[in-house]
Amino acid sequence: MRIRIGIMGYGNLGRGVECAVKHNPDMELKAVFTRRAPENVKILTPGVKVYHADEAVSMKDEIDVLILCGGSSTDLPVQTPELAKYFNVVDSFDTHARIPEHFDAVDGAAKENGHVGIISVGWDPGMFSLNRLYAGAILPGGHDATFWGKGVSQGHSDAIRRIDGVKDARQYTIPVESALEAVRAGKNPELTAREKHTRECFVVAEEGADLERIEKEIVTMPNYFADYDTTVHFISEEELMRDHAGIPHGGVVIRSGKTGWEDENSHVIEYSLKLDSNPEFTASVIVAYARAAYRLNQEGQTGCKTVFDIAPAYLSAESGEELRKRLL
Amino acid sequence: MRIRIGIMGYGNLGRGVECAVKHNPDMELKAVFTRRAPENVKILTPGVKVYHADEAVSMKDEIDVLILCGGSSTDLPVQTPELAKYFNVVDSFDTHARIPEHFDAVDGAAKENGHVGIISVGWDPGMFSLNRLYAGAILPGGHDATFWGKGVSQGHSDAIRRIDGVKDARQYTIPVESALEAVRAGKNPELTAREKHTRECFVVAEEGADLERIEKEIVTMPNYFADYDTTVHFISEEELMRDHAGIPHGGVVIRSGKTGWEDENSHVIEYSLKLDSNPEFTASVIVAYARAAYRLNQEGQTGCKTVFDIAPAYLSAESGEELRKRLL
Question: Which residues are listed for substrate binding in this entry (chains A, B) (predicted)?
Answer without folding.
Answer: 148, 173, 199, 249, 278
